[in-house]
Amino acid sequence: MKAAVITFPGSNCDRDLAVAFERAGATVARVWHKDQALPEGTDIVGVPGGFSYGDYLRCGAIAAQSPIMRAVNAHVAAGGYAIGICNGFQILTETGLLPGALMRNAGLKFVCKMVELKVATTDSAFTSGWGMGQAVRFPVAHHDGNYTIDAEGLKRLQAEDRIAFTYADNPNGAMADIAGVLSANRRVLGLMPHPERVVDPVQGGTDGSVLFRALVDQLALA
Questions:
Q1: Average predicted confidence (pLDDT) for the chain
Q2: Which residue, 33, 59, 170, 181, has most beta carbons within 10 Å?
Q3: Looking at the predicted structure, is the pLDDT value of residue 222 above 80?
Q4: Is it the case that residue 190 has pLDDT exceeding 90?
Q5: How does residue 133 score in pLDDT terms, banded at 50, 70 and 90?
Q6: DSSP label at 25?
Q7: Which residues are designated catalytic?
Q8: How far apart, in whole angstroms, are the C-alpha atoms of residue 198 and residue 207?
Q9: CA 212 to chain centre
């Protein structure tokens, strides 16, 4: 399985994401935001966390206009997989690849801590390694993680089983405690917590490794 991890000016989790993919058995290519195309044979694109373009204008808004995002849009339109974590989630909503928006945290403060999540669906390559309702622990580190969507959009996510993770104790005011959502074809995941930061015991946990191993295994079977 071949992963492409993008780096924008201000990304700070791109190496962590690449290492997480590699530890799960994927081959990883590093891609600069000004590149015009993804490497040939890319199965999944990783859009990492950080502060792309310093979060100017609006988190993820400038990065969404980077040349490489046209290739990412085409990759997803052709049925390819993508994952956006934290700032990457913000970028994917700004491109329209995922619904909703990430607003300022309800407490108006940066939140950085370990949080408990509930696996809200196992019907995706990303979450297939867990049981329904299983508790997992990932760290969060964000100022704009308050997931917001209109009432109709929320009903659609719920009806289509596209909420991937929910917070056990909501740290940011996100609607319906949503921590991560899936695209309509279930091949794109956006989430605010950082699974790539818990793939080794020295990081304080290994829950994140389950996501990456399940993803690699599922794509190997495709």
A1: 96
A2: 59
A3: no
A4: yes
A5: very high
A6: T
A7: 86, 194, 196
A8: 6
A9: 12
Tokens of 81: 């997989």
CB atoms within 10 A of CB 206: 14
Residue 208: left if φ>0, alpha if ψ -120 to 50, beta else—which one? alpha
Amino acid, single-letter form, for residue 93: T
Q: At 146, which helix (H) or strand (E)? A: strand 146-148
| Residue among 116, 118, 126, 141 at smallest CA distance from 197 | 141
> Is residue 20 within 8 Å of residue 210, measured between CB atoms?
no
Distance CA 38, CA 32 (A): 10
- The label of the residue with tokens 């921590």 reads 179
Q: How many helices (H) and strands (E) does the chain have?
A: 5, 11
Can you give the pLDDT at residue 142?
A: 96
Q: Name the H helices within 53-139.
A: 67-77, 87-95
